[in-house]
Predict the 3D structure of the following.
Amino acid sequence: MEALDGGEEDEAEVKTQVGTYKKGQDVGKAPKAKKATKPAAVSSGTPGVMYLARIPHGFYEHELRSYFGQFGDITKLRVVRNKKTGASRHRAFLEFADAEVADIAARTMDKYLLFGHMLSAKVVPPAQVHPNLFKGANRRFKVVPWNKMAGNQLERPLSESQWQAKISKEEKRRAARADKLKEMDYEFDAPALKAAEAKPLLENGAEKEPKAIEAAPTADEAESKEEEQVVEPEVVKKAKGAKAKATKSTEEATEEATPQKKQAKGKKGKKTKS
């Protein structure tokens, strides 16, 4: 496999080449397949593996399957990716259902210009196919947010046992440093570390004080609460009735007062005319 895999050389060439493929773009049609050097009347039926290098950026699992599936059935497909970042390393392995199809696809696509990249395709001999070559194949790659996961892990509060493990580790480190200082005829007593205290925590990491659990109400308390609930509506109705009567009495008083005011105004007007 090392003879097939160009490694850093292929990646360096890919960086110098300008790719024209855009995400979501149609992959297009494959070129006319070259005929096999040794034509076989009947297909062997054994699978064949093809190694593909210098793949354009954005040409990943889905695009490779849709493009090279025009040659024949693809049983397994794996894009070589960076273990830490998950970025494509511009290399892939494709297993066709028939070895003859793999040979035709490799000879057709070798040194073929695809979206600004000169492809390199070779057939992998069956003796060189590693058992774990297609480990994790036939899966759509999903980006793992390692940085976000690490940040959440740091923000998550530690338990008492975890803090105790950290304290013991720090004490061992300080003891080893003190021994080295003693060899240099220098004694230094480091301050003791505080013991870890357990605190109740919520799921999101915020501290929470423990609340006392209330006891279940007794039968007498439950009956008294039910009576209060029944009596309250009657009191409210009475209050509403009293308010309605008070408003009616005020309205009647104002109606009685208005004619008297009109009569007084009329008398004043007559006196002024005379």
Observations:
- The longest strand covers residues 88-96.
- Residues 159-198 form one domain.
